[in-house]
Structure formats: C-alpha cells, structure tokens
User: What shape does this take?
Amino acid sequence: MNKEVIKTDQAPEAIGTYSQAVRCGATVYLSGQIPLIPETMEMVDGDIEQQIRRVFDNLRAVARAAGGDLCDIVKLNVFLTDLAHFPVVNSVMAEYFVEPYPARAAIGVAALPKDAGVEMDAVMEIPR
Assistant: This one.
C-alpha cells in the first residue's frame, strides 16, 4: 500500500515523530492538532473557545493541503481535559461544519501536550 505524507506550513509543524497527515488511497488520516499558532508554534492566547477555533483552523489547513476540506472529514475525535467544555465544542463546531456531520467521539483526558485544553484528530475520505 502506498502512503503519501501531507505537510503544510499553514498548520503547526509536527512536535514529535509523526506526520501532519498521511494519505493511503482515498483516506487521509490527520494527526492530532492542538491550539498552536503555525507561525510561532506558541499556544493561542484565550479561553477554551479560542483554543477550539485554533484547532479547527489547524485541521482545516491540513485538510486543504491534502486536497480536501473539513466537509470531507468522516470521523472526528475530540480530546478534552475538561468535559464541561463539550458544549463549547458543539457550538464552535456548528460554525465550521454543516450536515451531514462527521461521526465523532469526545474523550476526557488527564493532560494534553503543551497543557492544551483540547486536541482533535480526524479521518477524511477524498476520492482521487
């Protein structure tokens, strides 16, 4: 099976041994994004809503680099250090996505890299 690495400077560079995304056939696997500003690699200032928006912006940048967009996401995983922020995820997500929405999971975690409050990864389907 042929794997193609997806990379863009419009999203934060990998901070470990992983790719921003990998295409395998028509499926693109987007690595987890935290609320880093691509140009500075610093965390976004602001509350959890600003963090969530930055994560969606980062995911969108990687999706576009792969030749798709957020509407091509079929599965979204949301990791939160405080599940009380789940309603904020829903509210912000409604601004970035339209129906049909992707399948989704929301998972409460003890901690995330760089003390982020949110991280998301995704799977897209983009026919060639």
